[in-house]
């Protein structure tokens, strides 16, 4: 029998002898036990630093607290499962136990397997409750809205707190609503068509965008993820709803900024060209069309150097320099302004000034070039003015606060976000306006505090502006400052000017860390779960991964399992896979696991599909049912037998009797019943004690069992009264058997009691008897035997 080895059990029993017997049984199965003789002592032990995992509590303790009061006191400050010990099962005792705990009771003196099974069931129930509470908190505390509803009635089954708070409805209001009450854009027919795709199994999940309507009538955009699950034998629909309000706002802002930037770039008088990592043109503004003579349609996607470099030797030099740029983002011309010759479409040579910048997009270096015609000084002066204006416009296109900063840390220009969010001013030191003196090294800060004048080269401790200017390349780093994490950039725009901006990425870093922790938790959960889990390739059915529990259940190390097919270990109906071959989405059934040593054990196996980048997989988990099957059989036996005599109990007898009546009505075969009542049984208990009375009852049952057939059914009817069902037996033969049993009983010498007698009443089934009328006739004949002086047999005649 599998137990929770190492679990601590506190035994609360006022009899040290009985407590020690219980402790010895539990110790035998690997439990760690501790004994308390009073309720008060139990309360103190539970208050201590080492709380027990379960308490076995005598319901009827001696002096002081009784077991029920002690259990209630403990449960006020500790969540510990309590199983009661009792010698009595009267209604008032059972009700008293039920009022305190949901973990049941066990009779004193019950077999050790009953005791250990009850303890194990209580611990499993406690663990199941703990897991259920955890999943309930995950559902309720989710930041997204989660709805569970019935796919047929559409009534909500559960709605989490995030959804209730966003909608403004109470849980009582939502219980009478459906998803259509929240989705004004959908009608019943269109929503049914979506659900039918899930119900028919055509899609595992459906994602669509719509709007939700709050209780106050306001609408907000949402992204809805619908999935179908099976719960308690029926299908339910889960809707994960993501509020898109913030995303839509950000998308609109981004579109506005992109439109602004596009308008700026399109209206610029300087030629602006962007090259991808292969040197092909990806952006070509109208000024470039005018300067070089090529339209956008002609130039986009073409290699720029081949078209505008006039000489072949110059072209080869440009190509070599560009190959270096492709790898490093660096080059002799990057970040600088150079003069060179270019070629017009009509063959004319142009004197141009080129400013190049490097921009990394999706892990590839892109070149952004600004080209101006310098053939005339006026044009050069005008182009310089436009360059300054263009830089300011680029700043305004950056959504975060951004500045143009000189080498001496003076703010030359800034966007509106910098002015409104940070409050900086053009002309001030960037470190003073943006961060204050808190970001300065100690010596710089102390100098300012003493004299009010900054030291030469004063800058923030994390500033890399000089490095960006010296390398003539953008530099990026993450900076922890003011309680957040900032993605900070220093982008050189000339020899002594750089673009400086920072984006708050604290939220995204936290999301990355949360995701990493969740992945670690999932891996830990999979390796520590007491359930076997294997990953199987859906096409070949070969096992690709196993956890430790699966390897233990299959009886082989992981390396000996991986590569084999799942059919070598698991039996499948009709020799095919229910999920892959029969098209099921989920298969959950009891199967037989063939272990590596050839033994077979029953398991509960669940198989689900999983789509991965490497193809479809089957995730199969299974758990050993051996102990549960054994326990179920033991419980079944306990539920149908009398614990004292091991005869069947009254409830089971009534089931068998009803079945026999139905059989007789179909076949016409006779059957009879015998009611047996011990004579003067009360005087036996009074004279010799209840233990002697119990021996009499057991002796009577043993004697009857030795005589009757396996097909007959003997049950304890109540107290000293028993009843026997005799299939295929007419009443006269049943009466003969009753007389034989009476004689055997009267000749028995029961130790400590001597000879006893009993009265017998016999009745045969007569249509249209019911179970109640047949038992009543047998009971009447029993009373007739009593009235005739006891120790005799009376029976009714044949049916008329």
Automatic annotation (TrEMBL):
In this protein, which residues make up the domain named PAS?
131-202, 257-312, 387-423, 518-570
A biological process (GO) of this protein is: regulation of DNA-templated transcription
Which InterPro entries does the record associate with it?
A: Biofilm_reg_signaling, CheY-like_superfamily, GGDEF_dom, Nucleotide_cyclase, PAC, PAS, PAS-assoc_C, PAS-like_dom_sf
Coiled coil stretches, renumbered: 370-397
Q: Where is the GGDEF domain?
A: 669-798
Q: Phosphoprotein as a keyword?
A: yes
Residues forming the Response regulatory domain are 8-123
Q: Which UniProt keywords apply?
A: Coiled coil, Phosphoprotein
UniProt superkingdom: Bacteria
Q: Which SUPFAM superfamilies match?
A: CheY-like (SSF52172), Nucleotide cyclase (SSF55073), PYP-like sensor domain (PAS domain) (SSF55785)
4-aspartylphosphate sites (modified residues): 58
Limits of the PAC domain: 204-256, 336-386, 587-637
* Annotated signal sequence range: none
- The reply on keyword Lipoprotein is no
| Record-linked Pfam families | GGDEF (PF00990), PAS (PF00989), PAS_8 (PF13188), PAS_9 (PF13426), Response_reg (PF00072)
Q: What does this protein do?
A: May play the central regulatory role in sporulation. It may be an element of the effector pathway responsible for the activation of sporulation genes in response to nutritional stress. Spo0A may act in concert with spo0H (a sigma factor) to control the expression of some genes that are critical to the sporulation process.
User: Cross-referenced PANTHER family, in alphabetical order?
Assistant: BIOFILM ARCHITECTURE MAINTENANCE PROTEIN MBAA, DIGUANYLATE CYCLASE DGCP
Under what name is this protein listed? Stage 0 sporulation protein A homolog
Q: Which organism encodes this protein? A: Desulfofundulus thermosubterraneus DSM 16057
